[in-house]
Amino acid sequence: xxxxxxxxxxxxxxxxDVEAQYRALIDACGLTLRRDRRFVRIRGDRRAEMLNGLxxxxxxxxxxxxxxxxxxTAKGRVLTDMRVFPEADALLLEVPDAGLTNLLxxxxxxxxxxxxxxxxxxxxxxQIGLYGPQAAAAAVELTxxxxxxxxxxxxxxxxxxxxxxxxxxxxxPVDGIELTVLSAGLGVLAERALAxxxxxxxxxxxxxxxxVLRVEAGLPAYGxxxxxxxxxxxxxxxxxxxxxxxxxxxxxxxxxxxxRGHVNRTLRGLEFDDETADAGAALRDDDKQVxxxxxxxESPDLGPIGLGYVRREVEPGARLGWSAGDRExxxxxxxxxxxxxxx
Length: 343
Description:
Organism: Candidatus Kutchimonas denitrificans
CATH architecture of the largest domain: 2-Layer Sandwich
Keywords: Transferase, Transit peptide
CATH topology of the largest domain: Gyrase A, domain 2
GO molecular function: transferase activity
Number of helices: 8
CATH superfamily of the largest domain: Probable tRNA modification gtpase trme, domain 1
Distance between the termini: 31 Å
Number of strands: 17
CATH class of the largest domain: Alpha Beta
Protein name: Aminomethyl transferase family protein
Strand order of the largest sheet: 8-9-10-7-1-11
GO biological process, one term: iron-sulfur cluster assembly
């Protein structure tokens, strides 16, 4: 892997470069190293059944697609979210770095080894992502075949002489193809992926640029927009919750909120007037605190925007003040997502 590619994929970028990377993601194709993700593999004859009894979504019978799910405390608060993908003889869990410790601790406590075993395989696996309107074309050049269709569509394949999992990511405003491979083969794959991107007008793009698209899509990130203080339904991640499946950790609280109640706050978009607010900034309606900022980015297309939890009675369109230390400003509450993709 060249020094330029390694530096762009592995470290923070200068603001001007983030804008150039963002433009590649929006207009062509960006190559990103997913340093923010970790991997856990579950094996055993009853692996799906055991995992299904712990997480918020149905993970039985997965075949050609994965599924987004959350792991909760008994009180319905978020320990982490994850994506669960089927492999020939295992389930591969893709977990945010910030949520890995919680997941491993919960599995150690609740996953019976007689039926299913788990292993943290983060050191042996790595993931790159191709994002943008040309992502699928770049993936065809890279893999020699059409990528899976549909959100979380997945397929195991041989790539450059080693095993790989190819996944379709459609939750962002642009198309996405993600490849999880053995860490030992990452360098060669990244160089070939970059060549495919550049041939289509793309370039490397760091996590900072990709984070702008995440906020535009209204996707909360574990460790930033959700943690053990946040109820599952406050996040807005309804795609990660099944209200028809059997018991799991925290289900009683989730069901009570869904069928008989409501949450008092919810994740909203925030459009800042002049500059982005710091994460943690208080949101106020006159003198009353009604929420808190959790993420903020400078979008080259949409300006200073962010995510935050706002009391449910505060409607989109409302004007709020924000303050953090000696900084303050104003913001408009917006419904999510800020931006829909043409997928």
